[in-house]
Amino acid sequence: MAVERIGVHESTSIDFPFEVFRDELADLGPELVPIREDGSGADPASCDAFVTFTHQQRLLEADPEWIHTTLAGVEAFPLDEYEARGVVLSNSTGLHGDSVGDTALGLMLTLARRLHDFVAAQQRREWAFPDWDEGFTLPGERVCVVGLGTVGGAVARRCSALGMDVAGVQRSEESVEGVDDLYHPDDLDAAIADARFVVLCVPLTDETDGLIGEPALRRMREEAYLVNVARGPVVDEGALVDALESGEIAGAALDVFEAEPLPEESPLWGFDDVVITPHAAVANEDFYVDVAALVRENFARLEAGEELENRVV
Description:
Layout: E1 5-9, H1 18-24, E2 31-35, E3 49-52, H2 57-60, E4 66-69, H3 79-85, E5 88-90, H4 97-113, H5 115-123, E6 142-146, H6 150-161, E7 165-169, E8 181-183, H7 188-192, E9 197-200, H8 214-219, E10 225-228, H9 237-246, E11 251-254, E12 274-276, H10 287-304
Parallel strand pairs: 1-2, 1-3, 3-4, 4-5, 6-7, 6-9, 7-8, 9-10, 10-11, 11-12
Helix pairs in contact: 4-6
């Protein structure tokens, strides 16, 4: 079946406007049309393929040949149903290394240099110099990067370039640029025990769900900070709140949460040494260019009968 029309679901607007994505792919061949929930866009039944942010059941039920998600993770997609319907699903893994790597490093610098305190003081119009022993620098500090894929590798390289002592956790025994000490996931306790920062970069799987709970938090240093740019459920938020309240760890920087948006009643909002960002580590003005390049590549592969890049199902 030839792909003549690609529907772009309105959920992708969280990452980029439809118009700039359409213009980037103007010479692709298939027509790109918007799919809107209010019905003002194209009829999904008229499309042969879709680009979406989240799983949309009505797109799947249109029985397209191919659906591409701008997400890297696909835990919210009913993969068995995609397979049963014969719909190819591809994702955008591998596109977020620089944006999430920069964010993770920025969050560490924020906590180390007390930048969050200064922003809060500015909002109060207060000239507040930190206590002499509050701020520290990153060179020489130890960081443990849990998960060394595209994102974790980017974090490790940045930390190494700043002169940090970098530990990494992954199943493979292959060396990773920037990582000084490599640990297997079975040795997570040892990996995180002496780290000033523990940065989570793993996908959400059965093995990583609740990976950082009370036992792991108890093994971290009192001066340690947890940075989560992975998925919210990788961390047991109740255990994290308890660890923060008891002073078991020094603080955290969190871009992802068990429930998103983070509920107003969450205790995490109230900690001075917790930095919260709205699942925005991937935000990047050029993301649409990267997604368009991946869609262009996979369209060519589909037309040639070749295996798609980043194929999930």
